Amino acid sequence: MQTTGDTRRATAERRRDTLERLGTERDMWVSTAHPDHGPHQVPLWFAWDGRAVWMCTGAASATVRNLRADPRVRLGLPDTLDVVLLQGEAECFPGDEVPGEAADAFAAKFGWDPRTEEGSYVYARVVPETVRAWRGTSELRGRVIMRDGVWLG
Are 80 and 86 in contact (CB under 8 A)? Predict the structure, then answer.
């Protein structure tokens, strides 16, 4: 984690820092909701392909059930001093239907390939529609660095 104190980063710098973190971080908080049971939040491993976040979890998980009922999702990197929040819609892929390039990248990053496991797994792909990034109160204004799927700055 790097902090800049009260130094306000330009939008282009926030974008660069965010892309770097998406390429190197391991875990992401995934928030979904069920119409009857409400919010659900779990940490999952993720891989960034330069355009989308790829995650994988058990096919019977609450996360997958929620995403199939309502694909809207919020994602967050786990650092409260260097906040990165993404919002978008998830597309679910059973393990035997996931694009090979995405599954291979996920397996290479984590040394674990869900496609070889006994149980059923689902990959979720989220192309961000909105990204917010800030470090401290000086960056709250202008924290949106992607809007409608387009990077700002």
Answer: no
Torsions phi, psi for 90 (to 5 deg): -90, 145
Model confidence over 98-152: pLDDT tens digits?
999 999 999 999 999 999 999 999 999 999 999 999 999 999 999 999 999 999 9
Q: What is the DSSP string of 62-79?
A: HHHHHHHH--EEEEE-S-
Conformation bin of residue 148: beta by default, left when phi > 0, alpha when psi is -120 to 50 = left
